[in-house]
């Protein structure tokens, strides 16, 4: 082989290695930063650590303490209520907004920006805004009473039975725009011939959406569901900004429980156990989702 050919082969190999070299920093970050942190958290959750980590082993004792803790069980109950309402409302409202904008309305670009803008805000800012809006002495209740309806009451944010719903309202207001954007992209990908055929056959639009469009948006809805589910499981900022988990612990959620025990109560092991439970909850949904997608992709290539 000539020197020229060897140089050409060497240059080709270097070009082939360039993408892998570019991915190396991210791969190291994932392995060391994320996977390493998960393994460390798992190890701490199996110890008797308090303020500082201990190098001992107590098995599943922290998990037994965790699920024997009334506050943790209440936080799981709140998370279930929050998650069901948050995901359901975001999907419905986001889909309706997407359908509305898909009608080629005037000012479409402006409307998209308005609906998506709340998602650009941090959950802390959202929580503080809605805390003021729902405050009985300064917000909606006071405004309506000043209009003459002196007996009007809207004090959910200080009502132990209703406070979790105020967090749902704030979160839905922020996240519905993202759902709208994702589903609008899916709607714009549907062949226009389907609508032409439906109009020729005299099929009502609501029937087309129900029987044809929704099934075709299955992949978009699955993506939206995974994103919303993950956001629901790790909700913290909105609760911390709006209610601080109160009144009492009425609006407590698992992430708030973990942060309080990690920094406020100096119980690193119990907080780590809670974090591992949340991680397993997310993996229980996300792992099958990605497995199904990869399997479908392999079948598509095989076909």
Automatic annotation (TrEMBL):
Keyword Cell membrane listed: yes
Pfam family, one: BPD_transp_1
TM stretches of this protein: 20-42, 79-101, 113-133, 162-187, 208-233, 268-291
Cellular component aspect of the GO annotation: plasma membrane
Main localization of the protein described in the UniProt heading: membrane
Keywords from the UniProt entry: Cell membrane, Membrane, Transmembrane, Transmembrane helix, Transport
Name under which the protein is recorded: Sugar ABC transporter permease
Recorded topology in the membrane: Multi-pass membrane protein
Family indicated by similarity: Belongs to the binding-protein-dependent transport system permease family.
Record InterPro entries: ABC_transporter_permease (IPR051393), MetI-like (IPR000515), MetI-like_sf (IPR035906)
Listed GO biological process terms: transmembrane transport
Intracellular or extracellular location(s): Cell membrane
Domain ABC transmembrane type-1: 76-291
């Amino acid at each position: 082989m000539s020197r020229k050919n060897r140089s050409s082969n060497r240059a080709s190999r270097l070009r082939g290695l360039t993408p892998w070299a570019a991915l190396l920093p991210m791969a190291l970050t994932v392995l060391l930063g994320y996977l390493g942190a998960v393994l460390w958290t798992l190890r701490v959750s199996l110890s008797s650590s308090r303020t500082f980590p201990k190098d001992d082993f107590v098995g599943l004792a922290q998990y037994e303490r965790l699920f024997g803790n009334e506050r943790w069980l209440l936080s799981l109950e709140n998370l279930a209520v929050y998650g069901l309402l948050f995901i359901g409302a975001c999907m419905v409202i986001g889909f309706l907004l997407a359908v509305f904008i898909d009608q080629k309305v005037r000012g479409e670009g402006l409307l998209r920006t308005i609906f998506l803008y709340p998602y650009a805000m941090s959950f802390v800012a959202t929580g503080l805004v809605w805390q003021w809006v729902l405050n009985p002495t300064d917000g909606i209740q006071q405004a309506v009473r000043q209009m003459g309806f002196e007996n009007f009451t809207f004090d959910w944010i200080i009502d132990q039975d209703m406070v979790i719903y105020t967090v749902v309202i704030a979160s839905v207001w922020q996240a519905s725009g993202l759902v709208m954007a994702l589903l609008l992209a899916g709607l714009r990908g549907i062949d226009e011939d389907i609508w032409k055929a439906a109009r020729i056959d005299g099929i009502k639009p609501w029937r087309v959406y129900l029987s044809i469009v929704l099934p075709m948006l299955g992949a978009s809805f699955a993506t939206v569901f995974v994103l919303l589910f993950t956001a629901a499981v790790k909700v913290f900022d909105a609760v911390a900004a709006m209610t601080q988990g109160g009144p009492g612990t009425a609006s407590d959620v698992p992430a708030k429980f973990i942060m309080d025990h990690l920094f406020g109560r100096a119980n690193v092991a119990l907080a780590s156990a809670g974090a591992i439970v949340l991680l397993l909850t997310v993996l229980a949904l996300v792992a099958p989702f990605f497995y199904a997608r990869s399997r479908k992709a392999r079948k598509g290539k095989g076909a």
